[in-house]
Amino acid sequence: MSSRLQAEHLYKVFGRRPDDAVERIRKGADREELREDGVTAAVIDASFSVAPGEIFVVMGLSGSGKSTLLRMLNGLLEPTSGRVSFDGRDLTALDDRELREVRARKISMVFQHFALFPHRSVRENAAYGLEVQGVPRAERERRADEALALCGLAGWESSWPDELSGGMQQRVGLARALATDADLLLMDESFSALDPLIRRDMQDQLLELQKTLKKTIVFITHDLNEAMRLGDRIAVMRDGRIVQTGTAEDILLRPADDYVASFTKDVDRSRVLTAESVMDTEVRGDEADCGCETADPATPFTQLCALSARLSHPVAVVAGGEGEGGERRLVGVVPRQRLVGFLGGRPGTEGGEPVPCDRPGDARGEKVISRA
């Protein structure tokens, strides 16, 4: 996978002699030992990469280091150790002028608390980043209006921030970031201050925009449901360290440790899982009846449950050609009790033990099915 943004062994230590503290950590010292000496290790040995057009979510509890990590990505905080690269350029090696130029043109931030100027109109707020770039007024107003329209705020351009609801104000913040046409969006708990319904609307808005704009996004949140809804991949942080990175299914079905597992116990699994996630690739002969209705590997969990309720046998999961004369392969089956087990957080066999999820194409149980 090609990467647009890379973080390599990032450390951020606050306090006296931070370089010495990094060496102590590398030799096995923990955060508590450093804290006794008046030193705070906010981020410890964080490494990850973000692909072009990917929404990469960093989640963790308050104090886990996620916001500090984000601020190192655009140079608002200088790493104590490590490197940040964007489009192959080492951002940690730039001088102040070069870094300001990158932040003005290449990287935009969307903050948690809107950060709108109360004395500027909605249009002027959305155009602010372009004003910093020196874009002529007519051009920046045109681009600001286009970004506001993308965010559902057409007709509100001349309004003042205090005339808008919280959700609308956050849309202005998002429009300001989009107006600059920055390649990288950094979103720091951007929806956390919103009411639940408005927050979900903003998530929908971001996902809809992403279908067209395909921005590279790093999104910070403490909410695992939000992380799983938005993220192509998720990094879970604890005590300054990234403890697991993976897709929503990886985090949900294969948690790296008890800490990650504790996050997932209250997650609405039906919004994350697909037939591929839950199917059993060990297919017996009496389970191979595909009937008239089948699922494909990408079938959402909720649709799978509805399909299972209509059938008297396990749901067959098939993959393969759709054209005339094409063949489909049976890649797995989903017994009803397996659906219940996953929904209740007990994936696996009758014994309740979690099992790895095989991918389509696994040789086990694979069978050619004639096209109905």
Automatic annotation (TrEMBL):
Gene Ontology cellular-component annotations: membrane
This protein's record includes keyword Transport: yes
Bias-annotated ranges (Gly residues): 342-351
Domain of life: Bacteria
UniProt cross-references to Pfam families, sorted A to Z: ABC_tran (PF00005)
Tagged with keyword Ribosomal protein: no
Keyword line: ATP-binding, CBS domain, Nucleotide-binding, Transport
GO biological process, one term: glycine betaine transport
Any GO MF annotation of the entry: ATP hydrolysis activity
Coiled coil stretches, renumbered: none
PROSITE patterns, per database record: ABC_TRANSPORTER_1, ABC_TRANSPORTER_2
Biased composition (Basic and acidic residues): 359-372
Region: Disordered, residue numbers: 342-372
InterPro entries (alphabetical): AAA+_ATPase, ABC_osmolyte_uptake_ATP-bind, ABC_transporter-like_ATP-bd, ABC_transporter-like_CS, Gly-betaine_transp_ATP-bd, P-loop_NTPase
Residue ranges annotated for the ABC transporter domain, each copy included: 5-264
Similarity comment text for this entry: Belongs to the ABC transporter superfamily.
Name of protein: Glycine betaine transport ATP-binding protein
Organism lineage string: Bacteria, Bacillati, Actinomycetota, Actinomycetes, Kitasatosporales
